[in-house]
Amino acid sequence: MLVMSLVLMLAPTEYPAFDADRAASLCEVKRAERDMTILYEDNASCVADQRADHRYFTVIAANADPAFAPAFARCALTWTKDGTTDWGMMEYCARTNIDGKRDFTALRADTKNLLRTSVNKCVADETEDGAPDWDSIASCARDQVGGHRDLALFRRAASTATERQGIDLCRMQAVDAEDKVVDWANAVRCAARIRIY
Q1: Count of the separate structural domains present in the chain
Q2: Please, are residues 65 and 98 in contact by the beta-carbon 8 Å criterion?
Q3: Element holding 127 (H helix, E strand)
Q4: Left if phi > 0, otherwise alpha if psi is -120 to 50, otherwise beta: which for 180?
Q5: What confidence tens digit (pLDDT) does each residue in 31-70 have?
Q6: Is residue 105 part of a domain?
Q7: According to the model, what pLDDT value does residue 38 have?
Q8: Whole-structure pTM over 0.85, yes or no?
Q9: How many whole angstroms separate alpha carbon 141 and alpha carbon 101?
Q10: Quick one: 67 and 93 in the same domain?
Q11: Rounded to an integer, what distance in angstroms lies between the CA atom of residue 5 and that of residue 70?
Q12: End residue of a domain, out of 49, 64, 98
């Protein structure tokens, strides 16, 4: 908790610097642990990719909305071990957070009332210590939108009143007791077990 709080205080310009020696050590480990020889003929090409990923991350961080700073700080915390940063994963983490925020914003804008509440809950569920994981938030929102759509399809396809009642029961059971928000992904998983379409 304390470490995350310290990382969240980092300004966008205070991310780890590129260190060629540490990158070379990381590349040696990666090449030994996994068969990375398909990607890299030698350590130098791996280090060159790490340097390029560092540059790419630096450009992303410098030009992103400052609201992404907590998410990027989480990336730094996740992908820096013993002072060595995996810049490929750091850059990927930053990019997926930006893409996730864009996808979440589009999904939320396209939802109404009851579904919007479920989509908005994804932010609270996928934020830890003030740092949102926008990739996970977007995935959660997609699950909610898809679950809502599929539950309606299942209900229309139900051939008996008993099946429709079962689907309605799934929806009622998917309401969170605390915040009264429907988890549409859970509701549709329940409904899928009622009958095989």
Answers
A1: 2
A2: no
A3: strand 127-128
A4: left
A5: 777 666 666 777 888 899 999 999 999 999 999 999 899 9
A6: no
A7: 62
A8: no
A9: 11
A10: yes
A11: 10
A12: 98
Token representation of residue 130: 């003030």
Comparing CA positions, the residue from 135, 64, 1 lying closest to residue 15 is: 64
Its domain, for residue 16, covers: 1-98
Q: State pLDDT tens for residues 82-136.
A: 999 999 999 999 999 999 999 999 888 877 777 889 999 999 999 998 899 999 9
In the block, which residue shows the tokens 């229309």?
156
Residue with tokens 């209900």: 155
Return the DSSP state at 67: G
Could you tell me if 1 and 94 lie in one domain? yes
**Residues 6+ away with beta carbon under 8 Å from 120:** 108
Question: Quick one: tokens of 77?
Answer: 């915390």
Question: Could you give the maximum distance between any two Cα atoms of the chain, in Å?
Answer: 68
> Do 17 and 79 have their domain in common?
yes
Terminal-to-terminal C-alpha distance of the chain: 47
Quick check: is 103 in a domain? no
